[in-house]
Design a protein that fits this description.
Blueprint lengths: L3 H16 L9 E6 L2 E5 L8 E5 L5 E5 L7
Antiparallel strand pairs: 1-2, 3-4
């Protein structure tokens, strides 16, 4: 059975490993914006995935995939 201390050590070790993992970069292009909905092409993603959108000034904005259009 794990004690609080051994669990804390386990989490700390794996957290350090995860911090050193490179993210997979998938790029696409925004084609349309309607209100708070953005449409993009060229992204191979699933509903619920988190992503970042780079603005024209280089700032990154967090977003989430919520659906797909039929087009």
């Amino acid at each position: 059975m794990l004690t609080d201390e051994s669990l804390s050590q386990f989490i700390h070790q794996h957290q350090q490993k995860l911090e050193n993992v490179n993210s997979i970069v998938v790029e696409g292009r925004l084609t349309r914006m309607i209100g708070m909905t953005l449409e993009a092409v060229g992204c191979n993603v699933n509903i619920g995935e988190r992503c970042q959108i780079e603005t024209n000034t280089g700032q990154l904005e967090d977003a989430e995939v919520v659906g797909f259009s039929r087009g």
